[in-house]
């Protein structure tokens, strides 16, 4: 059984803060500073360039990838780390399109994260072969899967509302029409159980700085189903993805299996900061995490709706239909969120009017939820948000 009270003590949570923004950036595990001090002093400082061999830096992307793969129902050797999520989206989508050269439609939804849509638009324009991106409403995606679609590219959990797509059902329909799937797990990995193999996913990508608590800018991952690995085209053919990088051949030959999805020099320090967070996940039962996440979400919704009628629920009411976040709409949501942050309740804002709250059982409990709603009620009922100070937009919202 997962001991959530013990796990909460594994994170550094600033005094006086209720942190409801782990869906944007997870808090720091308390083991990170000591671990990073070891990496800096004993590996980088002492080993210097030898660290690629003696400290295992070179194999770190595959080793850490396998650890994340275990959280995603992925077989060993099907996940590798490196680069940013945008790079990994580009790799996965380009590889999938190359496997369906006769088809020209990329299907997503109009609630997908803009970066994913930008990348799809960019690839379609770069190819110059008449590809088009279609973005129906999320609830209309299933009906839009037809024989002319090349790739279905979706984020499983909507970044604004937390609405959850049914990965298995949509993947099955996609395959029935000869469509390949690319799943973005940015708001799924570490938030809910994922089983890529059971769902039949072809490609998947995700970041590690949200629910996986790897730190700001921590590296992304890419999954390629085992049956596709040897035929997956490499759109970004960097030297670390070469079959023999240190032969320094002038001609690119893709590496074997998932290794071909490596690009450049791996971010050793970022991967090293992620590893203590993954140690915590060794003690988590994902089904228990999901149950507790839904319970916290239901409590939060009940309390907010009972005390803050100005806020309108934007997330699905059914806990099984959303990820590990709850969002409310409010016309002056940006200002209200700034007022909350000033009073120690940290969530975030997404355009046009979404106040977003992450409910992560690893470090949030029922008492945190109730105390957070006390503050939300005070801010809303007393219009504490209604000042020029809180309405002035910052660079990062």
Set down the secondary structure blueprint:
Blueprint: H1 4-8, E1 18-19, H2 32-47, H3 51-54, H4 60-71, E2 79-81, H5 85-98, E3 105-107, H6 114-127, E4 132-134, H7 141-144, E5 149-155, H8 167-176, E6 180-184, H9 196-199, E7 203-206, E8 221-224, H10 268-281, H11 286-307, E9 312-313, E10 325-329, H12 333-342, E11 345-346, E12 348-350, E13 354-358, H13 366-381, H14 388-391
Parallel strand pairs: 1-11, 3-4, 3-5, 5-6, 6-7
Antiparallel strand pairs: 2-8, 7-8, 9-10, 10-13, 12-13
Averaged pLDDT = 98
Structural class: alpha/beta
- Please write the CATH class name of the largest domain: Alpha Beta
- Rg is 22 Å
Pfam families: KYNU_C
Pathway: Cofactor biosynthesis; NAD(+) biosynthesis; quinolinate from L-kynurenine: step 2/3; Amino-acid degradation; L-kynurenine degradation; L-alanine and anthranilate from L-kynurenine: step 1/1
GO molecular function, one term: pyridoxal phosphate binding
EC number: 3.7.1.3
Key terms:
single chain; alpha/beta; Aspartate Aminotransferase, domain 2; 7-stranded mixed sheet; 4-stranded antiparallel sheet; 14 helices
């Amino acid at each position: 059984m997962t001991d959530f009270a013990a796990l909460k003590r594994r994170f550094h949570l600033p005094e006086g803060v209720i942190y409801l923004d782990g869906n944007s950036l997870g808090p720091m595990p308390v083991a990170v500073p000591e671990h990073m001090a070891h990496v800096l002093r004993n590996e980088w400082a002492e080993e210097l360039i030898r660290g690629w061999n003696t400290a295992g830096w070179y194999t770190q992307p595959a080793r850490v990838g396998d650890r994340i793969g275990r959280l995603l129902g992925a077989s060993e050797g099907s996940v590798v780390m490196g680069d940013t999520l945008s790079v990994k989206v580009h790799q996965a989508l380009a590889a999938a399109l190359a496997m369906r050269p006769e088809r020209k439609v990329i299907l997503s939804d109009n609630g997908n994260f803009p970066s994913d849509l930008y990348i799809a638009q960019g690839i379609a324009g770069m190819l110059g072969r008449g590809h088009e991106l279609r973005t129906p409403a999320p609830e209309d995606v299933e009906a839009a899967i037809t024989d002319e679609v090349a790739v279905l590219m979706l984020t499983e959990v909507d970044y604004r509302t937390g609405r959850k797509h049914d990965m298995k059902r949509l993947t099955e329909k996609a395959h029935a029409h000869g469509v390949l799937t690319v799943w973005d797990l940015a708001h799924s990995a570490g938030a809910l159980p994922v089983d890529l193999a059971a769902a039949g996913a072809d490609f998947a990508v995700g970041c590690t700085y949200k629910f996986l608590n790897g730190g700001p800018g921590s590296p992304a991952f890419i999954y390629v189903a085992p049956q596709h690995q040897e035929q997956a085209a490499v759109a970004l053919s960097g030297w670390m993805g070469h079959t023999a990088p240190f032969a320094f051949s002038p001609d690119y030959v893709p590496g074997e299996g998932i290794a071909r999805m490596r690009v450049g020099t791996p971010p050793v320090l970022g991967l090293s900061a992620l590893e203590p967070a993954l140690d915590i996940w060794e003690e988590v039962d994902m089904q228990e995490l999901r149950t507790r996440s839904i319970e916290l979400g239901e409590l939060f919704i009940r309390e907010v709706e009972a005390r803050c009628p100005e806020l309108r629920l934007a997330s699905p009411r059914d806990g099984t239909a959303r990820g590990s976040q709850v969002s409310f709409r409010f016309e002056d949501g940006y200002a209200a969120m700034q007022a909350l942050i000033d009073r120690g309740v940290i969530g975030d804002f997404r355009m046009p009017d979404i106040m977003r709250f992450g409910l992560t059982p690893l470090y949030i409990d029922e008492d945190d939820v109730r105390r957070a709603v006390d503050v939300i009620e005070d801010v809303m009922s007393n219009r504490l948000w209604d000042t020029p100070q809180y309405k002035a937009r910052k660079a990062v919202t």
